[in-house]
Write a structure and sequence with these properties.
- There is one protein chain.
- The chain has 121 residues and is of the alpha+beta class.
- Helices cover 35% and strands 25% of the residues.
- It contains four helices and six strands.
- A six-stranded mixed sheet has the order 3-4-5-2-1-6.
- Strand 3 and strand 4 form a beta hairpin.
- Helix 1 packs across helix 2.
- It is globular.
- The two termini are 23 Å apart.
Length: 121
């Protein structure tokens, strides 16, 4: 059975909390793109921390029955993107996050720190 965007957001944010990531931002992008419903941006302290965090999220999502559609950047660890379909996760080092400022790119998105409520957009 597919995992809802709300449940997936909760799973991902809890996995990020498990790994003590920094500045977790949840962006509801449903009104801005057809690619995904939710983007989550989180900061790791180092490339090693970014990789370990992304791997933990991948393990947790697989355990919940949601296999990633794609993973990019895991080898380098500066910016790892995990595509979970309804949710795309970006985990970045502080310098990479500052350089690309994804939150500004998706400026029209509703932001939160907690999982989205069903039907919000």
């Amino acid at each position: 059975m597919p995992v809802s965007a709300e449940a997936l957001t909760r799973l991902v944010t809890e996995a990020l909390d498990d790994r003590k990531t920094q500045r977790i931002t949840v962006l509801d992008v449903r009104a801005l793109t057809d690619v995904t419903d939710v983007m989550v941006v989180a900061g790791g302290r180092s490339a090693r921390h970014v990789k370990a965090t992304a791997e933990h999220v991948i393990e947790q999502s697989k355990a919940a029955g949601c296999r990633p559609l794609g993973v990019e950047g895991l080898r380098e660890g500066e910016w790892v993107l995990v595509d979970l379909g309804d949710l795309v996760l970006h985990v970045m080092t502080p310098d990479t996050r500052e350089t690309y400022q994804l939150e500004k790119l998706w400026g029209g998105a509703e932001r939160s720190r907690s999982p989205l409520k069903a039907g919000s957009a």
